[in-house]
């Protein structure tokens, strides 16, 4: 008599996730039924098995975002999501799921069946600068030629190489004006050249 109870308890941890593929969110919709106590890495593998024709590069090449999108009246959102220059975060407010050894139920606890829960994207055509993917290598190359990519690349370069203090000169040298507290006088390269010429004109024995 106890066995059916244990079986029912085991099945109660199963959840169903409504998923869309980032590159084709209108037609690329599918469902995954999985144990909420499984790990995110198990979810990636289940998605790869479910969509073998779409995700050919292994489960580690799948990026996931948890989202909260109504199943009905969402075409405008999905069309915007499909745009190669749009990110999941900017369109849906979704949260990137990264930790493979985190339990699924910590991200999806009693998911609403009338919602889209998960955006899925393969990473074989991924732009690390913009942290976004493209549907094909051709689309990725086109994205890398766009103003959006150039702006992100410029921002990344500035973050890695902040400008030096505008009040300092190259190599840390400073000019001192006449009348400074230490009575130092600044010399330009022309001043030094003129001084050397004067020394040469004096001739030997006159210094």
From TrEMBL:
It is found in: Host cell; Secreted. Residues 142-159 have a biased composition (Basic and acidic residues). One of its GO terms (cellular component) is extracellular region. The keyword Secreted applies. The keyword Secreted applies. It holds the Pfam family Crinkler. Keywords: Secreted. InterPro entries: Crinkler_N. Residues 181-193 have a biased composition (Polar residues). Residues 15-121 form the Crinkler effector protein N-terminal domain. Its main location: host cell. Residues 137-207 are annotated as: Disordered. This is Crinkler effector protein N-terminal domain-containing protein.
């Amino acid at each position: 008599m106890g066995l059916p109870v244990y079986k029912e308890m085991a099945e109660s941890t199963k959840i169903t996730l409504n998923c869309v593929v980032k590159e084709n969110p209108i037609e690329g919709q599918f469902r995954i039924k999985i144990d909420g106590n499984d790990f995110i890495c198990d979810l990636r593998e289940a998605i790869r098995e479910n969509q073998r024709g779409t995700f050919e590069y292994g489960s580690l090449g799948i990026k996931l975002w948890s989202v909260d999108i109504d199943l009905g009246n969402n075409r405008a959102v999905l069309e915007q999501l499909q745009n190669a220059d749009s990110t999941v975060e900017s369109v849906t407010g979704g949260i990137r799921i990264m930790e493979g050894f985190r339990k699924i139920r910590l991200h999806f606890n009693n998911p609403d069946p009338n919602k889209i829960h998960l955006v899925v994207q393969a990473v074989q055509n991924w732009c690390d600068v913009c942290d976004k993917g493209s549907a094909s290598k051709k689309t990725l190359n086109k994205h890398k030629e766009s103003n959006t990519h150039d702006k992100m690349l410029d921002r990344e370069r500035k973050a890695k190489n902040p400008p030096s203090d505008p009040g300092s000169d190259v190599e840390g040298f400073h000019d001192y004006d006449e009348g400074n507290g230490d009575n130092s006088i600044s010399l330009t390269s022309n001043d030094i050249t003129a001084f050397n010429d004067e020394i040469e004109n004096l001739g030997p024995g006159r210094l």
